[in-house]
Design goal:
five-stranded mixed sheet, 10 strands
Length: about 180
């Protein structure tokens, strides 16, 4: 007889199609992975719902959550978490208004203001590799995208799948993937 181990896990509550919480249930791509992990390892995984991605990160750091299925490794996160080998990859994209020119990468951004999701690993990457760039953090992907729509910022950086989902779901047709 193998004893079942119970673990508490958290997800980003608003990062569809990767993961989300809807009606207190974990949905999205990572929900399938978490079910597989639970069965294969004889884990009883219990979702601890969170309000924001930063709330999820805080609960992981405090130990209230013992696991999260989709999290990029960073130096600061490695201080309090152990990471598996990546099992899912998705590119990041630059999103701007349709009238902006196409961007090949961060080197072409210049003095434009970049919107980022709070607590996303890309923030650390930009600070380390492109400290000259002007950034502003927002509590959610949608808030960051809306800052581009309103003109408060010029570019949003985020995951291709979730960013494209928000653009389609919220009818943000004035935006496009620019790089």
């Amino acid at each position: 007889y193998k004893r079942q181990v119970q673990l508490t896990y958290c997800v980003d509550p608003d990062w569809f199609p990767f993961e989300s919480i809807k009606d207190d249930k974990h949905i999205g791509i990572s929900s399938d992975y978490i079910k597989f992990i639970a069965v294969e390892n004889n884990f009883d995984l219990v979702l601890l719902p969170t309000e924001t991605w930063q709330d999820t990160l805080d609960k992981l750091q405090s130990g209230e959550c013992q696991l999260t299925p989709m999290l990029n490794k960073s130096v600061s996160r490695s201080e309090y978490l152990s990471f598996s080998e990546p099992y899912f990859n998705s590119p990041n994209v630059l999103v701007s208004k349709k009238n902006q020119p196409f961007l090949k990468g961060f080197e072409q951004i210049g003095n434009q203001v970049i919107a980022l999701g709070e607590g996303f690993r890309i923030n650390d990457y930009i600070k380390l590799h492109h400290p000259e760039l002007i950034t502003k953090a927002y509590p959610s992907v949608l808030d960051g995208l809306m800052s581009v729509v309103s003109g408060e910022t010029d570019i949003f950086v985020g995951s291709m799948l979730s960013t494209n989902n928000y653009i389609q779901q919220h009818g943000l047709h004035q935006l496009r993937i620019a790089g």
